[in-house]
Amino acid sequence: MAAQGNNLVVDEVVIGRDKEREYRDLLSQFDVRWVGLFAPLDVLEARERVRGDRAIGLARWQYDRVHCGIIYDLKIDTTATTPLANAQKIRDAFGL
Predict the structure, then answer these.
(1) I want to staple 85 with a disulfide (CB 3.0 to 4.6 A). Which of 19, 63, 67, 81 is the partner?
(2) Cα dihedral 22, 14, 8, 91 sign
(3) 33 pLDDT exceeds 90?
(4) Is residue 20 within 8 Å of residue 59, measured between CB atoms?
(5) For residue 62, what are the CA distances in angstroms to 3, 16, 18, 49, 65?
(6) In angstroms, rounded to a whole number, what is the distance separating the alpha carbons of residues 6 and 88?
(7) Arithmetic mean of pLDDT, 46-57
């Protein structure tokens, strides 16, 4: 899709340096920005319960794995602002 000129937002949980390298290699011909979304574990677990479409315990399992070693162009604490405000931060940070 990107090769056809489409702008994409990829929402992915990247665990491990190998998976990160795979993404970076695959997307190396495109202007890619990496945005890390963060929240404390208790907030993530509460969101997990409220959503109802997640396996309980997944947030805890991912918590110490998901951001390890990844270099982000932008980091956002999602507990401090709304999803709309976070989208605006991304827009403003990258001049979109």
Answers:
(1) 81
(2) negative
(3) yes
(4) no
(5) 31, 11, 16, 15, 5
(6) 20
(7) 89
pTM of the shown model:
0.82
What are the angstrom distances between the C-alpha of 78 and each of 26, 41, 47? 28, 12, 11
- Residue 14 near residue 34 (C-beta atoms within 8 A): no
DSSP 70: P
16-28 pLDDT, tens digit per residue, is 888 889 989 999 9
The whole-chain average pLDDT of the chain stands at 91
H helix runs in 1-96, sequence order: 17-26, 41-51, 58-63, 83-94
Place of tokens 């932008």: 74
Rounded Cα distance, 43 and 87, in Å: 19
In this model, does residue 8 exceed pLDDT 90? no
